[in-house]
Amino acid sequence: MYQRKQVETITQRMLESRNPLIQVVVGPRQTGKSTMLSQAVGNAGLDCHFVSADDPLVPTAEWLRTEWQQARNLTRGNTRPAALIVDEIQKVQQWSNTVKSLWDADRRSASTLKVFLSGSSSLLLHHGLEDSLMGRFELIRSPHWSYSECRDAFGYSLDDYLYFGGYPGAARFTEDPQRWGSYIRDAVVEPTISQDVLALEDVRKPALMRALFRLGAAYSGQELSYTKMVGQLQDAGNTVTVAHYLDLLGKAGMICALPKFDNKELVRRRSSPRLMVFDTSLITALSAKGRERLIDDPEQRGHIVESAVGARLLARSSAEGFDVLWWREANEEVDFVLQKGTALTAIEVKSGHESAQSGMATFLAKHPEAKRIVVGGSSAGACAVEDFLLDEIELFY
Length: 397
Prior knowledge:
5-stranded mixed β-sheet; 12 strands; about 15% strand
């Protein structure tokens, strides 16, 4: 079975003898977090107690204490290491305070128990990790699968990846696109919204949340002001509500609002966002146009390629520590601007359509220190879309 590179990281953490920190595996639903943890346990050869908060009808703090003690028993009085893995930890009532109490007790007793938690989306971070568990954990991120992973694991071509995206569980259905689309909508999109967002946050207008996701998927790669979003939604809330819901969808690994690049933070916050999906399957599975039109039509393909590049940048940004933005001035724009400390990179995507006049020359005149990357097209120095999605292009000087 294919193993992602994160499996090696998890395995190493399991084998460390002097690292008592809780290991938290976070990422969007259906990206293989549970599988990675199971593979790492097999690699490490540890006794392990693996439980999921999806199993009990109402996972309570008392349920978690009982399971934690079962894992402690595997250490045989702290004479040998063992692992506890709790999947979908965010569904346990008052989980963060309970984990803090149990983990602190283990530290006082010099426990040899190694604790691994997993949760769908970074919404988990805002429900306990940053407050109750500050200083007690390390993050291991599980983003959507990359093109290289899907190519090696499932034999995807570039066109396959552009259409089917990076959800490994859906790969078995690619021979039947209709069934594949149903899987993405029913097993990925709806559970993410209903269980990972609506169940954890105070969302007063669920219908608006769902409509906003569909709108964001349709307009991926395009600038859309919050006022225009409100105007396009039937169940219209105010712009503050729409911005909040879009933020939640971003934390759930669905769609996000890329801010406009500007040296002034206030200008960034007030600017219209550029919508971007975290995986191209969230566009194609919701579209009625079919694979041939989406992939073979130059304009449609251009939108898909641009979203694939944006999604890959978003996946890399959290691990590599850079921000993903965009830039526009009058009618000139740059598709993506990456910022890492004082380093800047401007990226232009050329693949079948031109959404606006290129602003690369103007941007570089204002920021001559920035690196220029052109993805696709036939201009001198341009890199192939496939090479970029395979992470073969250095993003910064």
